[in-house]
Amino acid sequence: MNSNLIILCTSITLLTSCSSEPDHDLLMQKAIEARYPGIYKDVDELKQDYPDFSPQIRQWSDDLSFLFGRGRYAVRLPEEEVIISKTGMVKTTRRCSVEGKAGCKIIPPKHPSLGVVGTLQLGAPSHSPITKYKISWSGTSDGTILTNGHCFAAYKASDEPLELTISVEGFLPIVIKNIYGNRLIAATFDKERNHYGTIRISTDTFNQSKTCLQSVRDQWPNVGGWAWKR
Question: What are phi and psi of 3, to 5 degrees?
Answer without folding.
Answer: -65, -35
